[in-house]
Amino acid sequence: MTHASVFRGNHKCTTMRTPLASRCYSHAKVETDEEFDARWVTYFSKPDIDAWELKKGMNTLIGYDLVPEPKILDSALRACRRLNDLASAIRILEAVKDKSGPHKDIYPYLIQELQPTLIELGISTPEDLGMDKL
Amino acid sequence: MSLAKPAMRGLLGKRLRFHLPIAFALSLVAAAAFKYGVTEPRKQAYADFYKQYDTTKEFNNMRDAGVFESVRPTGE
């Protein structure tokens, strides 16, 4: 699985935002954002996913130059539910908030999109638990 | 009132594409400023000092001050 190339901007790709898994000199097929998202949703949707695969998947995903889409996070949270891992579910929320960096509008949007899932699965946000304060 | 979807991909890349050229340029400016503000004047000061330096006269001054071991002051 190819990892993110941070410098997607060079002479060919400076104006358009190229998809994540692309190198400008390779003849490999460029994966679109939708394909990338679908691949990760599928990864976390594995019914018998194990704890290692969940952690590995999340760590790999967090290593990319992007904040995961709500549908990927939804799939990951459901995997946590199957594994009875509430701690990881809340940690995922903390991780995406951190991934947003200075862009404070991303996390509220994600919580808004994930609200039905959070309610269904009974996941508290770090803010609910007072864990966002030092 | 639901929130609009913000940009979520390539944020670091965008930041680096913006800041790294500036950082590189500022580093070059800092290096140039140090070179022409500090090192070149310093080199010039040394050059100016030694342009009019009379080695024999200074040697004899040092000799008479008694700082050498290899030659005694004149007249001893």
TrEMBL record, chain A:
Keywords: Acetylation, Heme, Iron, Membrane, Metal-binding, Mitochondrion, Mitochondrion inner membrane, Phosphoprotein, Transit peptide, Ubl conjugation. It is found in: Mitochondrion inner membrane. Pathway: Energy metabolism; oxidative phosphorylation. SUPFAM superfamilies: Cytochrome c oxidase subunit E. GO terms for molecular function: metal ion binding. One of its GO terms (cellular component) is respiratory chain complex IV. GO terms for biological process: mitochondrial electron transport, cytochrome c to oxygen. It is a peripheral membrane protein. It holds the Pfam family COX5A. Component of the cytochrome c oxidase, the last enzyme in the mitochondrial electron transport chain which drives oxidative phosphorylation. The respiratory chain contains 3 multisubunit complexes succinate dehydrogenase (complex II, CII), ubiquinol-cytochrome c oxidoreductase (cytochrome b-c1 complex, complex III, CIII) and cytochrome c oxidase (complex IV, CIV), that cooperate to transfer electrons derived from NADH and succinate to molecular oxygen, creating an electrochemical gradient over the inner membrane that drives transmembrane transport and the ATP synthase. This is Cytochrome c oxidase subunit 5A, mitochondrial. It comes from Oncorhynchus mykiss.
TrEMBL record, chain B:
Belongs to the cytochrome c oxidase subunit 6c family. It is found in: Mitochondrion inner membrane. Pfam families: COX6C. It is a single-pass membrane protein. Component of the cytochrome c oxidase, the last enzyme in the mitochondrial electron transport chain which drives oxidative phosphorylation. The respiratory chain contains 3 multisubunit complexes succinate dehydrogenase (complex II, CII), ubiquinol-cytochrome c oxidoreductase (cytochrome b-c1 complex, complex III, CIII) and cytochrome c oxidase (complex IV, CIV), that cooperate to transfer electrons derived from NADH and succinate to molecular oxygen, creating an electrochemical gradient over the inner membrane that drives transmembrane transport and the ATP synthase. InterPro entries: Cytochrome_c_oxidase_VIc, Cytochrome_c_oxidase_VIc/VIIs, Cytochrome_c_oxidase_VIc_sf. This is Cytochrome c oxidase subunit 6C. The gene is LOC112266676. Keywords: Membrane, Mitochondrion, Mitochondrion inner membrane, Transmembrane, Transmembrane helix. One of its GO terms (cellular component) is mitochondrial inner membrane. The lineage of its organism: Eukaryota, Metazoa, Chordata, Craniata, Vertebrata. PANTHER family: CYTOCHROME C OXIDASE SUBUNIT 6C (PTHR48416). It comes from the Eukaryota.
